[in-house]
Amino acid sequence: EVQLLESGGGLVQPGGSLRLSCAASGFTFSSYAMSWVRQAPGKGLEWVSSISGRGGSTYDADSVKGRFTMSRDNSKNTLYLQMNSLRAEDTAVYFCAKGGPWVESDYWGQGTLVTVSS
Amino acid sequence: DIQMTQSPSSLPASVGDRVTITCRASQGISNYLAWYQQKPGKVPKLLIYAASNLQSGVPSRFSGSGSGTDFTLTISSLQPEDVATYYCQKYNSAPLTFGGGTKVEIK
Asked: Residue B64 pairs with which residues in a beta bridge?
């Protein structure tokens, strides 16, 4: 059974940093691209970042480019999202999803809430 | 970047109605189009991939069609448990843009 479990969310001040993690199990992690998708309170889904299976290629939304960095540790079956220079508009539930460019996102984690506020 | 436009944004319908949601890409995306269902407070669930392929376990009343720039999601007979917001997403290349969502509710 595929499982994705996000962690690392919380309250952070504007300008601060946070690192999200997503622990994966139930599939050959290194064979699949992975993505982060966020959803601000009461809003729609917004794609944030994707990474190739081996981690050699990353893709970022313009809204987070230069501030967020996605990475993965295939030895630990874990995905990361390093978020720097956080803004109020980054407040959202962040989901990790199995899938990325050219591959549909067929499994999603439960999400972790990031709140950026002073 | 390719924009994804969904319509309508809100869709009140009666139980048993045939419901159609449209998603339009600003440029061709072949068939790299997925549809997701998100119930209130829940995680998005994949319904359709590659524009017309039904994800395993999804009821057959859901179907997808289209290619290139114009896509549709159809619910052949709306059920109470189908109340949700539906999103399309292009995934041919980054950015993997979502449509704005269609909220389906029972009249």
From this structure: B73
